[in-house]
Amino acid sequence: MKIYNKHVLPHPDFYIVTFTKNPDKPYLLFIHGGPGFNSGIIEYLIEHHHFFNLLNDNIILYDQRNCGRSKIFPNSVSHQDNINDLHTIICYLTNSVEIKIIGLMGHSYGAKLLFDYYNQFHATVPAIFISMANSILIPRLNNLLFDLLYLKKSSPDQYNKIMQTMDNMNLKKMWELSEKLTYLFQENKDRSYLYWANLDCLDRVTDVQKKINLPMNIEVFISVRKDLYSNESNFQITIDSLSVPHLWVNGFHDFITNSVEGVLLSSKITIFYQSSHYPHIEENDRVSTCINKFLLR
Prior knowledge:
Layout lengths: L4 E5 L6 E5 L6 E5 L8 H10 L8 E5 L16 H18 L4 E7 L1 H13 L5 E4 L6 H18 L1 H9 L6 H10 L3 H4 L4 H4 L3 H14 L5 H12 L16 E6 L8 H6 L4 E3 L6 H4 L1 H13 L1
Parallel strand pairs: 3-4, 3-5, 5-6, 6-7, 7-8
Antiparallel strand pairs: 1-2, 2-4
Helix pairs in contact: 1-9, 2-3, 4-5, 4-6
């Protein structure tokens, strides 16, 4: 049963869409991951598969700069661009459209973007972080190891050449090697299994991707990632430094963001044990209920 009314807001630069179940209720703003992705899949799942039906409040989605259906700006995109854009969109929603925002929810890169937004603009609404590591070096190293694992099978000669150069590893070498292997991100078709624990969800999302035809922007992926890792002040995510109420959600099977300290030893992270990198999709009802309890509290 369809319970949300969909409306695309008239913004000159960004694709922004509201899903309203009760006009008297506030809105939760969702910030998609990437970098370079868009909100198309979540939008389709809300509209056609009843996702977030259990959420008490309304929800807003938007596509980041040069992503999905938002405007293509001529210059390369930086992480700071995305932070500034988020502030612009929040001001537009609260001042021009007069929408009350009850919370901000970021997924993966969107969670990092949200964390930095709070540090720069000192927002006071509650924060929800989904699939986030306590350092951006964790997903960088994990992804590099997966790329090397893929090369063992796909290109043994190239893998052996790289192995001969790996007498040691530091941040500079890790980044240079990651840059060299960027093309593998889309070439490795098995990578999707790292991000999903629920195979039915993987099949559904793969089908949705084909229907909506909104591919990631690889240029944004490269430029924002390079910008992030060029500044060591970006590396750590000190969640306890935030003065706002916050909820941190990770999937147990998430090979990208998890560490032993985070999954098994931390009381700061709410773990969903039937999910990988997309708990808000794989266990949508459970995550929605968790968000409701957090926002009511």
